[in-house]
Amino acid sequence: MKIAILFDDVISRRNATPDELGVLDSLEAVEAGLQARGHEAVRVPAGFNLAKWSTLLRRTEADLVFNLCEGLGGRSDGEVLAARVVEEMGLPMTGSRSSVLSLARRKDQVNSLLESRGLPVPPWALWNGFSRESWAAGWSIFPAIVKPAAEDGSVGITQDSVVSDRESLAHRMGEAGEFAPLLVQAFVGAREINVGIVGDQLLPLSEILFSDLPEGHQPIVGYEAKWSPGSPEDQGTRPVCPASLPHSLAEEIRALAKKAWSAVGGEGYGRVDFRLTEPDTLHILEVNPNPDLGPSAGLARMAKASGWSYSALLDQIVCEAVPTPAVGAGRGSL
Fold first, then answer.
1. What's the first-to-final CA gap in the chain, in angstroms?
2. Exposed (0-12), middle (13-18) or buried (19+): which is 251, by Cβ within 10 Å?
3. β partners of residue 68
4. In which element (H, E) is residue 126 found?
5. What 3-state class would DSSP assign to 42?
6. CA 328 from chain center: how many Å?
7. CB 131 within 8 A of CB 113
8. Which residues have a Cβ under 8 Å from the Cβ of 315 and sit 6 or more positions away?
9. How many CA atoms lie within 13 A of 239 on its CB side?
10. d(Cα 199, Cα 182) in Å, to the nearest integer?
11. CA distance 297 to 153
């Protein structure tokens, strides 16, 4: 099968940030993995010149688009645009549709949706960038965490994002104002559990261990943990898969993950993240229909624990995108 790998053209941007440059690791690995499964892989770099890259994509005459776009041209909302263009071209594409990506990148909208389905999310509110001091004065749940409502990859999240009182909340809102609107949320739990999904399969649960963080550091996976190799946050956040959890609790996490994934309309592959307050109180932290597909990232780690090679994971993702007898069973539903 001829597969076009669509990715944000970070190479052409001098000011590309570490989180944006991360796509290059995924690109190399996905290309090699697809070739290992007998596919012909063609790279298609994408930017905000839609006519240019869509023409290039059409000329490839690819059977499938493997979508690695988590943004375009330095804008995270470009992931929605990229998927929408592919849809309008009528080409099959890995992962979720543009409508799902659009919903999921707004954490406030996902929280509202999950709450409406009776699913547990931490108490939260949205700040749109106005009357910072008076808004903070009305918030009463501490500790709290302040994070961008419409970014991913832990952009805008640092150790200073966790606040303990109204004064520090107002201060952090000011510091992070460039990312407004901001989600202010109760900071719950000390354990973080990840659930990987491919088609109708739930992968082994994974956990981020925070025991190696320096004293005084908050148990979060912030920007430094993800994108600054060798930093204290990177070295102090250690993933373990499978997670060590009681069977009944693990089953509850899986059931909640299925419901959350279904609520947002996720397809193909994704990840649902939880915070766990001992012994068994769960809150859904995020539903991510476009997680990092790098070979050392969470989804690949969970797939490995399930007995899949990296190339086998990619082939499963391809099978979910092209429901033909020649490729696989097609998209599953949880």
1. 27
2. exposed
3. none
4. strand 124-127
5. strand
6. 25
7. no
8. 37, 328
9. 21
10. 32
11. 12
**Placement of tokens 């229909």 in the chain:** 289
pLDDT of the residue at 325: 53
The rounded distance, in Å, linking the Cα atoms of 253 and 246 is 11
- What is the crossing angle of helices 298-305 and 310-321, to 10°? 100
Cα angle 14, 107, 334 (rounded to 5 degrees) comes to 110
Residue located via tokens 């006519």: 51
Q: Is-contact 268 320, C-beta < 8 A?
A: yes
Q: How far apart are CA 243 and CA 240, in angstroms?
A: 6
Report the distance separating Cα 41 and Cα 30, nearest Å. 9
At residue 326, the pLDDT reads 44
Handedness of CA 223, 227, 228, 229 (dihedral sign): positive
Per the prediction, the chain carries an average pLDDT of 95
- For the entire predicted model, the pTM comes to 0.94
pLDDT of residue 48: 86
Contact 124, 141 (CB under 8 A): no
Tokens read off for 166 = 């109204």
Q: Compute CA distances 45 → 16, 64, 97, 209, 301, whole Å.
A: 14, 15, 19, 36, 26
CB contact burial 295-326 (16+ within 10 A = b; e otherwise): bebbbbbbbbbbebebbbbbbbbbbbbbeeee
Residues recorded for the chain: 334
Contacts of residue 165, defined as CB under 8 A and 6 or more positions apart, other chains included, come to: 142
327 confidence band (pLDDT: 50, 70, 90): very low
pLDDT given for residue 285 in this prediction: 98
Q: Is 60 left (phi over 0), alpha (psi -120 to 50) or beta?
A: alpha
What is the rounded distance in angstroms from the CA atom of residue 200 to the CA atom of residue 323? 14
How far apart CA 331 and CA 334 sit, in angstroms, is 10
Report yes or no: 139 and 184 within 8 Å, Cβ to Cβ: yes
Q: List 236's β-bridge partners, or say none.
A: none
